[in-house]
Amino acid sequence: MQKKTLKGATEDKLIERIPIASKEAVDFLSLIEIKEIQPCLFEESLVTISETGETIGTFDISVKWACYSLDDWQEEDCFLVHANSKGTIDGVPCKTSLTGYVTKKLEILEQHTQESVRFRDHPVETRTQVVKQHGQLCVTKTVVERDEEIHVDTFSYRCAQLQGLISESANFLVLRVMARRQSLPRDAIFLSFDSDQHICTSTYNTLGFQKQQVKKEEVNVFVIERTVHSVEVPPLNWQFCFLPDGHLSRRVQIGSPATMVILKMPILIDKDEPDPRPIFEKVLLDWEEDPELYSKFLDRKEELQASHATYVRRHPELSALLADFLQLLLLRKPDDVVTFAAEFFAPFSAQQPPCRSFQSSDRPSPFRSHV
Q1: For residue range 153-205, what is the model confidence (pLDDT) as tens digits?
Q2: Phi, psi of 348 (to 5 degrees)
Q3: Burial (Cβ within 10 Å: 0-12, 13-18, ≥19) of residue 334
Q4: From CA 9, how far away is CA 15, in angstroms rounded?
Q5: 285 vs 240, 280, 290, 292, 298, CA distance in Å?
Q6: Alpha carbons 58 and 49: distance in angstroms, whole number
Q7: What is the rounded CA–CA span in Å between residue 250 and residue 240?
Q8: 243 in helix, strand or coil?
Q9: Residue 165 has what DSSP assignment?
Q10: Quick one: angle between helices 291-314 and 316-332, nearest 10?
């Protein structure tokens, strides 16, 4: 990245000193499998409610499979996360949108965030881009006022130092996995982005189960608290309430006058529970005592006998050949019947040259194995 020549711009710099995630956090992320993430790919919508109970906005989340192009020829399967929030606070229209690509290991590939506040004569928009390239995570933050870029910051981090990082895009998936498990890792310290896109630490804690009223139905929800520990500003806290399948039912940012809730119960996603493995007991089979099996045996026996009899009738030479062999066998009475039979039938073979039969009936048989 190059230095920007705008007012307030800063030169691109590589940030070396960043916090380190705990081993528990790194292990937790590495053990999340695709089969756990798959049920977390769905869309959901909430509404934003003011302190007076008035609906002032909406909040939508979508997570699905996508294909990310690493370069002109190589592509990678990943997760595409969309999140949009829009509403009005104290009469001021506000809008936030997030689009992010996350690997199957929940690592960030690319993320775009756009926050806009439209004052009457002074609209302000903040655009943030995070892209992974050449072993670094490059961040570009742009502030736009009245459609004019007035400030640009660019900086980057080494990816090797970002183990345990949960981006805002990956955060939606991690929360859903935790909610479906209904358990969180203990003493885990993750890495996150703060509001200025600087790397800081974050933690997740469970607040247990609570009751929530959804229209006329009261449901149990699992509550997770996320805290982002920024270096320069006070910690930011969110509380997320989840239904058993990972659907978000309530979202609150501590200190904010607005609350996001669902208006009606969604169709819950059934958890895939493997069927118990069937156990087949060993049963002794006495086919002669089983009428059905014995009947099948007799039918098969008659079928084979009829087939054999038909074959013999169609080949009368077979009876004459066997009669000659048995007559000669009883006359000679050789000790080695196998060799005698081989020499008797050898002239009938089309693969061996003809020879004089019975010239050495007592020699070792080539049809028997010898040690």
Answers
A1: 999 999 999 999 999 999 999 999 999 999 999 999 999 999 888 999 999 99
A2: -85, -10
A3: middle
A4: 17
A5: 60, 14, 8, 12, 17
A6: 9
A7: 6
A8: coil
A9: B
A10: 90
Residue 105 dihedral angles phi and psi, to the nearest 5°: -95, 10
pTM of the model: 0.71
3-state secondary structure of 12: coil
Tokens 């990678």, located at residue: 76
Percent of the residues in the chain that have a pLDDT greater than 90, as a whole number = 56
Q: Which two tokens stand for residue 268?
A: 């819950």
Tokens of 179: 């909610």
Distance CA 272, CA 247 (A): 16
Q: From its phi and psi, is residue 135 left (phi > 0), alpha (psi between -120 and 50) or beta?
A: left
The owner of tokens 């711009």 is: 9
Q: Which residue has the tokens 């996995």?
A: 177
Q: pLDDT tens digits, residue range 208-249?
A: 999 999 988 999 999 999 999 988 889 999 999 999 999 999
pLDDT-derived band of residue 72, with 50, 70 and 90 as boundaries? low
Strands (E), the chain: 13-14, 43-49, 55-69, 75-89, 92-102, 108-118, 123-133, 136-145, 148-158, 190-193, 199-214, 217-229, 236-242, 248-253, 259-261
CB atoms within 10 A of CB 71: 7
CA distances from 255 to 205, 231, 235 (A): 18, 19, 11
Asked if 270 and 222 count as a contact pair (C-beta separation under 8 A), the reply is no
Q: What ranges in 5-44 are assigned the alpha helix state H?
A: 23-30, 34-37
